[in-house]
Design brief:
By secondary structure, this protein is α/β, with parallel strands linked by helices. It contains 14 helices and 22 strands. The N and C termini lie far apart (68 Å). The relative contact order is 0.14. The chain binds adenosine-5'-diphosphate.
Length: 477
């Protein structure tokens, strides 16, 4: 089930040096992967660079067919892939399966989009001239991905890159390499030519440095933390690489006096506790109108206290473990800081010490104020801090006063209110009465320090294309 080798230039390459991967639900070692570094990273670029000359010239239809074969193979293997996700990442099996289906939507979308890489012709200012705009693949793409969505973060980058005609070198997170390795094995079975897709696991800094310093890599697509994203952005400057960065979030969740409270509570549960809150679009701070805060809070507490926490491989589990002890420490710090400043724990609030894994209870905290750390920084865990507001103007200002701008949620039955929020929230993704807004056909990405570029839909393929403008004057005098 678990593949440990790197895949470079169409070969699975074993390495003497390995790193052990643990299951966050048990802390048991589940397998080992290659501890690749500079050497493997450079070999991967060489392979991708050579393959680019051939792959970029293939027909769009051919690229589409291979992506479609990859889609079919992922579908046929979705149960195994979902088990791998749960074992290495911790999310409940039903969520892991939903992630695979979501991840595969990108492969299908870009299998189709590959054929629609249209250019333009533009009316010129003189009669003899023709203005033509052609789209061409940028070149070798480096994709660096996080552990929270081990499948979707891979396909969201690779599918549009491959559709555009780019070749790729991938480094998955050191916490969750097995899902990525399995996906790449399926891509090999789908007959992508040698060198078009390469994967290297191991030392993040060595691999990242090699890829960022090499001029042959023309694009970096990164999803991860804001500090690492900023670091990579600086390193990419030397060779002026194209960048897509999907970084941290700090999503506000707003419930107005006119909201349908049942739907708001359901949206809160989905957006807060999916993947135990370990999502950059997870709602992170709850602003509830003072007229409905009592009702909303009581219902959210009741629903949250009924969520079952446990090993995601078991039946009927709603929330799995957090990824590691650092994740637990961050949630505890946010809770302790809030309580020290006057907040009260309404449900949860504790690490489950009797379990072997990194389990933390889903938690709701009330009496929260804007000076608390949980209202200023991403928790990336199962903590819902609640505060009240009086007017929509006030709450939109509070929601926007963040360096982040990825996702925001609004619950209301008033079109006027919804329109106000749509127009005034400074966020890249807004869910109106929707706790799960992500979709393969939509542009996903953030304002401000939440990132650069968009993933998904016809917008996503543009990130992997250069535009070539050709001005043609008459061929005769
Ligand atoms: P998180 O682990 O919180 O998701 P990180 O930003 O630390 O966020 O990690 C996201 C991805 O970036 C992972 O694949 C990780 O290995 C990688 N990474 C971390 N530091 C570096 C670095 N200096 N150079 C290249 N990649 C890095």
């Amino acid at each position: 089930m678990f593949i440990k080798q790197n895949f470079i230039n169409g070969q699975w390459i074993a390495s003497e040096d390995v790193i052990a991967i643990k299951n966050p639900a048990t802390k048991a070692i589940i397998g080992e992967v290659s501890n690749g570094g500079h050497t493997e990273a450079v070999l991967a670029i060489e392979a991708a660079s050579k393959a680019f000359a051939l792959w970029s010239k293939k027909t769009a239809r051919y690229r589409s067919q291979l992506l479609y074969q990859w889609y079919q193979l992922i579908k046929e293997n979705q149960d195994e892939l979902a088990r791998i996700i749960t074992i290495e990442q911790g999310k409940p099996l039903k969520e892991a399966l939903a992630e695979i289906e979501y991840a595969n939507e990108y492969v299908l979308w870009y299998a189709e989009e590959a054929k629609r890489n249209y250019g333009n012709t533009i009316p010129a200012s003189t009669t003899n001239k023709h203005i033509i705009v052609k789209k061409e693949p940028v070149g070798v793409v480096a994709a660096i991905t996080p552990w929270n969505f081990p499948a979707a973060m891979i396909t969201r980058k690779l599918a549009p890159a491959l559709a555009a005609g780019c070749t790729v070198v991938v480094k998955p997170s050191e916490e969750t390499p097995f899902t990525a390795l399995k996906l790449i094995q399926l891509a090999e079975k789908a007959n992508f030519p040698r060198g078009v897709i390469n994967i290297v696991t191991g030392n993040a800094k060595q691999i990242g440095d090699a890829w960022l310093r090499d001029k042959r890599v023309r694009k970096l697509s990164f999803t991860g933390s804001t500090p690492v994203g900023k670091l990579l952005m600086k390193e990419a400057a030397d060779s002026v690489k194209k960048l897509s960065l999907e970084l941290g979030g700090h999503a506000p969740f707003i419930v107005t006096a006119q909201a349908d409270i049942d739907r708001a509570v359901e949206g809160a549960i989905q957006s807060k506790f999916r993947n135990a809150g370990q999502a950059c679009v997870a709602s992170n701070r709850f602003y509830i109108h003072e007229d409905v805060i009592e009702n909303f809070t009581a219902r959210l507490v009741e629903r949250t206290s009924r969520l079952t926490l446990g090993n995601g491989l078991k039946n009927n589990i709603d929330i799995g473990p957090l990824i590691n002890e650092n994740a637990i420490a961050k949630v505890m710090y946010h809770i302790e800081d809030a309580v020290a400043k006057g907040a009260s724990i309404l449900t949860g609030g504790k690490k489950i010490s009797e379990e072997k894994g990194h389990y933390f209870q889903p938690t709701v905290v009330g009496n929260v104020t804007d000076d608390m750390v949980c209202m200023q920084d991403e928790t990336f865990g199962p903590l819902a801090p609640i505060t009240s507001f009086k007017t929509i103007e006030e709450v939109v200002n509070r929601a926007n006063s963040s360096q982040y701008g990825l996702a925001a949620y609004v619950f209301t039955t008033s079109l006027d209110e919804a329109t106000f929020f749509m127009n005034n929230l400074e966020y890249g993704v807004i869910g109106v009465n929707d706790g799960l807004p992500s979709a393969a056909q939509a542009p996903f990405g953030g304002y401000k320090e939440s990132g650069l570029g968009r993933e998904g839909g016809y917008f996503g393929i543009e990130e992997y294309l250069e535009q070539k403008y050709i001005s043609v004057d008459s061929f005769t005098q």
